[in-house]
Amino acid sequence: MTTQKLKLGVLASGSGTNLQSIIDACEAGTIDAQVCVVVSDNENAKALERARNHNIPAFSFTRKSFGSKKEFEDAMLKCLEEHGTELVCLAGYMRIVGATLLEPYAGHMINIHPALLPSFPGLEGQNQAWEYGVKVSGCTVHFVDDKMDNGPIIGQIAVDVREGDTAETLQKRILEQEHKLYPHCIQLIAKSKVKIEGRKVKVSSSS
Ligand code: GRF
Q1: pLDDT for 112-133, tens place per residue?
Q2: Does the active-site annotation cover 108?
């Protein structure tokens, strides 16, 4: 019997190592999902090259070529929908998602953040945590809502800060955990194990 695969549309602005971890998990069959399209706001994003290396349709939309944020997001939305996207995964997408894109995918859009939310939202959460001097940081996957790095949390992995760490070594260890956490959370959704209840996400343990 073939399992129905959850169709993912991934939004990425940069290097796309999280995208790669998702593609690899899909191809290995460890998650019941497939990346049906990759969309970027940066035509030079390495994420686009990663997608094309796996024969995944990949498109870039430059904000400057559109008269308004709404028109820009309308174009991205159309692209996601045309490729059958069921779940939007933000993977290093460096823009705040507006209502045009968010509303059609409310409850079906997730993001990964390199800190233990609600601590250190915003840009470079790993570096903020490092500068603050925390002893434990980590990463978070959460649903996207209309505030930055704010929606209900699906999963988190803690990463200890070690004596001798630098911002770079900590960032690297957090990124390694991101590459495990993101596919894991996608699989929870693919298996319908995730239910949003207000601020909380209930994760069922049934197989
Ligand atoms: C990751 O640290 C992710 O948590 C953050 O942006 C970074 C993207 O890295 N949102 P990559 O493009 O997936 O390598």
Answers
A1: 999 999 999 999 999 999 999 9
A2: no
Q: Look up the pTM and report it.
A: 0.96
Structure tokens belonging to residue 200: 């909380």
Q: Which residue, by CA, sits nearest to atom 7 of ligand 1? A: 92
Whose C-alpha lies nearest to ligand 1, atom 12? 16
**What phi, psi does 202 have (nearest 5°)?**
-90, 125
Q: pLDDT tens, 125-181?
A: 999 999 999 999 999 999 999 999 999 999 999 999 999 999 999 999 999 999 999
Residue of 109, 141, 175 with the most ligand 1 atoms within 8 Å of its CB, for mutation? 175
Instruction: Select which of 54, 83, 108, 113 is catalytic.
Output: 113
Q: Which two tokens stand for residue 60?
A: 């870039």
Whole-angstrom CA distances from 156 to 27, 172, 201, 203 are: 24, 16, 12, 13
Rounded to 5, what percent of the chain is helix, strand, coil?
A: 35, 25, 40
Residues 6+ apart with CB under 8 A from 60: 39, 40, 41, 42, 43, 45, 48
